[in-house]
Design brief:
With 174 residues, the chain is of the alpha+beta class. The chain has 5 helices and 11 strands, in the order E-E-E-E-H-E-H-E-H-E-H-E-E-E-E-H.
Length: 174
């Protein structure tokens, strides 16, 4: 299934693959990849259970708004420490994600790539068919892996609603 005109990029309507993720549903499946001291590793929804989770989705870390989004969440999530999972998801290669996060001192968020199968993009309704990039959005999951907040930013070049996402995340901690 595709959602034509679901978002815009610089005012131009684009199509998102898959179905829209809505609050109240279980987190759809995905297999993301990270690269660290143990080499290439996978990340799936089951790895996130047990703690509230924020997923910050960006088209590419090497662009201005994506950089702002990642740095803003990194800064605002610092005080929550290990009480949450915080993950930036993009199609950037894990090695490029490592470089970006090292250069920008991103320490409070993990990063994971959907480059191999685009399972996140397709299963979460976030893959822009015309560009084969992820669109911008934010999701919050409770400790059981249920979606409690979902935002697909209507104009991909705009920033997400940080306050709404952080309020939803904070609600999972109380």
């Amino acid at each position: 299934m595709s959602r034509s005109g679901a978002i815009t990029f610089k005012g131009n309507p684009l199509t998102l693959a898959g179905e829209e993720v809505k609050t109240g549903q279980a987190a759809p499946d995905f297999t993301l990849h990270t690269f660290g001291a143990d080499g290439l590793q996978t990340l799936s929804p089951s790895d996130l259970k047990g703690k509230p989770t924020i997923l910050s989705v960006v088209p590419s870390l090497d662009t201005g708004v994506c950089k702002i989004q990642t740095k803003t969440f990194n800064e605002k999530l610092g005080s929550l420490g290990d009480s949450i999972n915080a993950v930036t998801v993009s199609l950037d290669l894990p090695f490029a994600q490592n470089r970006f996060c090292g250069a920008e001192n991103i320490e409070n968020m993990k990063h994971a790539s959907d480059y191999q199968t685009r399972s996140f993009g397709n299963n979460w309704g976030m893959l822009i068919e015309e560009l084969m990039l992820l669109t911008r959005g934010t999701f919050v999951l409770d400790a059981d892996g249920n979606v409690v907040y979902a935002e697909v930013v209507p104009e991909a070049t705009d920033e997400p609603n940080y306050d709404a996402a952080l309020t939803a995340l904070q609600g999972c901690l109380n």
